[in-house]
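Quick note —
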Amino acid sequence: MKKIFINIFSMILAWLLASFVNGSVVLIGTMLIPLPEGVDISNLEALKQSITLFSAKHFIFPLLAHFIAVTIGAYVAARLLGSRTTIYAMGIGLIFFIGGIINSLMLPIPLWFIVSDLCCAYFPAAYLGLRLAKKCDENSKI
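Predicted structure written out below.
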């Protein structure tokens, strides 16, 4: 029973860390590539109305944020949870993948972003995080 709680806590910790990283990368992106004049990203309805003002460059950091966040989240999940690392790492990818689907249904974002985000950002990043964690495990045994 104790192991179940540790696993749940570890997954929640990995998810929260990945969420923080995601938001941080998006925030850094808005500093480096300023949003179009009049865009409000703090309100979903305002964002829906103004997202048509975004150009391709405004989608670079959200895509990077998703990839980096899932990689880190999967890495942390795989490192914290000694067994079934593949399931936990891919679980982080799945959680964010579902979020990506919901996001693409809620916002009028371009199809190229939806395809690249759903195909390239979640499960490949989870796999990368898993591989990095396994590589660290191999190196620590030496």
